[in-house]
């Protein structure tokens, strides 16, 4: 009978067969007199030959596996290389090169403990190999650097952590997924959203179902205010793992933000301004760090507050828009190649700041900060010279500023802007008596100045035509005393002024020669 042994089973069967045959021939191999039995010798030689052939076959298999693994490492397919090297070491446990290559593959995958063990095993087989000793040192450095990166990440020193990842870990462990995920998290914390999108894209190209990469990339789009793309990333992740807590939080948080923002805009459009204010504030409270979106909410809130006449609150909201870090604005513009949303490709960030300057200028008009209003509206007009609404607002602000610098005749006489002619006359008579120089001999110079001012105020407000022109903000003849020294009720080179009071003053006049005609 011929026994056929399949080649694939030979590795297990032949060693057992060899030792079985030796045992069977052990007694007869040597005679009592030490003479070798020819028959036993022939059988022993046959088995020895079979064992040598089997050992050579195993070594050949191990070398073949080693060669294939080396090719996998060259194309950075380290996981496949590890599988081949496991088989090679199983076939030949003393194949030192297999340990070296497997250690290298482990290092690239940041399996540092496994890498260290294999490098040490190689050094047991081939002590003193300097190149492998250096590789072992690199493995230890990479492990320490990754631990340091996590430590700095937890403490908030994101730049330092990123240095450890870029300059050590990924230099020695280029295929380290753990380090790559940490890197995109660090870039997100540093607000480098363009790099987050790019780096996470490389991860997803290798593993399109990587949940961490989907989450971080979605957040980058979120912070760029590209909410549709962010939602698609979150949704894909949740289809893979519906119970992923971070993905659920990100997805439902964004949905709630969009709902609140839309409610605020709708109420503002419907004229429900007070409700809109509360909606805008609620939306802003959801994520204070979402700067790219919150600028729109702050601007919308500012516009509503201006309509409500709440100037101070409106200034605060528009200032939030204008205080945005210019570096973030640059980041938004630079990211337009990575995201597919009209917002970034049409220059809207520029228009957003124009509107913020404009609305803050309007708010400052409400608070009578004329200089501030002119300054903001000039900036807005320079940025958008064709906008007639801004030009009109600037003209109003400049007019208000000019009016604020002229004398307020109503205030000088102590009457309201709606005062009747009779009220103006009574106020004038009272103040003229109070500040007549002959009644203020101890402070005559101050009294003369006050008296001139009172007389000038009455000259304008006591004349219906001049009063109307003054109320419209028109420039009046400087002879009224509004800007020069032309008006002088005491003469001295100017016109002589005669006061007419009904009922006269007690005693028929003032001592010192200032007469009053009744």
From TrEMBL:
Pfam families: DnaJ, TPR_2
Residues in the signal sequence: 1-24
PROSITE patterns, per database record: DNAJ_1, DNAJ_2, TPR, TPR_REGION
InterPro entries recorded: DnaJ_domain (IPR001623), DnaJ_domain_CS (IPR018253), J_dom_sf (IPR036869), TPR-like_helical_dom_sf (IPR011990), TPR_2 (IPR013105), TPR_rpt (IPR019734)
Residue stretches making up the J domain: 408-474
GO CC, alphabetical: endoplasmic reticulum lumen
Record bears the keyword Ribonucleoprotein: no
Repeat found in the keyword field: yes
TPR repeats: 211-244
Location of this chain's protein in the cell: Endoplasmic reticulum lumen
Keywords: Endoplasmic reticulum, Repeat, Signal, TPR repeat
Gene3D superfamilies to which the protein is assigned, alphabetical: DnaJ domain, Tetratricopeptide repeat domain
Domain of life: Eukaryota
Main location: endoplasmic reticulum
Function in brief: May play a role in protein folding in the endoplasmic reticulum.
Assembly, per entry: Interacts with BIP1.
Name this protein carries in UniProt: DnaJ
Organism: Musa troglodytarum
Lineage of producing organism: Eukaryota, Viridiplantae, Streptophyta, Embryophyta, Tracheophyta
């Amino acid at each position: 009978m011929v026994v056929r042994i399949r080649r694939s089973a030979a590795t297990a069967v032949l060693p057992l067969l060899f030792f079985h045959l030796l045992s069977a021939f052990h007694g007869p191999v040597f005679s009592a007199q030490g003479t070798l039995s020819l028959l036993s010798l022939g059988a022993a030689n046959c088995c020895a030959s079979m064992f040598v052939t089997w050992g050579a076959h195993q070594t050949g298999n191990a070398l073949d596996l080693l060669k294939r693994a080396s090719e996998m490492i060259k194309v950075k397919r380290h996981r496949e290389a590890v599988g081949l090297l496991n088989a090679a070491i199983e076939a030949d446990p003393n194949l030192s090169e297999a340990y070296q290559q497997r250690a290298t593959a482990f290092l690239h995958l940041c399996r540092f403990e496994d890498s260290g063990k294999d490098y040490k095993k190689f050094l047991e087989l081939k002590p003193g190999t300097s190149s492998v000793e250096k590789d072992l040192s690199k493995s230890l450095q990479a492990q320490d650097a990754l631990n340091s990166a996590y430590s700095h990440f937890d403490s908030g020193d994101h730049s330092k952590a990123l240095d450890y990842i870029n300059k050590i870990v990924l230099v020695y462990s280029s295929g380290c997924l753990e380090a790559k995920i940490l890197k995109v998290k660090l870039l997100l914390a540093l607000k480098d959203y363009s790099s987050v999108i790019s780096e996470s894209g490389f991860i997803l190209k290798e593993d399109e179902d990587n949940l961490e990469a989907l989450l971080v990339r979605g957040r980058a789009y979120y912070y760029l205010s590209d909410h549709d793309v962010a939602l698609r990333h979150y949704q894909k992740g949740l289809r893979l793992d519906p119970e992923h807590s971070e993905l659920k939080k990100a997805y439902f948080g964004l949905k709630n933000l969009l709902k609140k923002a839309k409610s605020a805009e709708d109420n503002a459009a419907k004229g429900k301004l007070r409700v809109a204010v509360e909606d805008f504030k609620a939306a802003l409270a959801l994520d204070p760090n979402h700067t790219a979106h919150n600028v729109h909410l702050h601007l919308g809130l500012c516009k509503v507050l201006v309509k409500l006449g709440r100037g101070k609150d409106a200034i605060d909201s528009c200032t939030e828009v204008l205080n945005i870090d210019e570096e973030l604005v640059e980041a938004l513009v630079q990211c337009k190649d990575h995201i597919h949303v009209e917002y970034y490709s049409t220059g809207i960030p520029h228009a957003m700041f124009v509107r913020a300057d404009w609305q803050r200028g309007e708010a400052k008009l409400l608070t009578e900060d004329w200089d501030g209003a002119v300054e903001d509206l000039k900036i807005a007009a320079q940025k958008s010279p064709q906008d007639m609404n801004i030009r009109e607002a600037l003209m109003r602000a400049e007019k208000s500023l000019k009016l604020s610098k002229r004398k307020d005749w109503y205030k000088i006489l102590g009457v309201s802007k709606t005062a009747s002619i009779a009220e103006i006359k009574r106020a004038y008579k009272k103040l003229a008596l109070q500040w007549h120089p002959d009644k203020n001999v101890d402070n005559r110079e101050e009294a003369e100045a006050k008296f001139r001012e009172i007389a000038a105020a009455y000259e304008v407000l006591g004349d219906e035509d001049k009063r109307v022109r003054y109320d419209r903000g028109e420039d009046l003849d400087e002879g009224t005393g509004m800007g020069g020294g032309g008006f002088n009720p005491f003469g001295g080179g100017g016109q002589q002024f005669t006061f007419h009071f009904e009922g006269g003053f007690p005693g028929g006049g003032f001592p010192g020669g200032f007469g009053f005609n009744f």
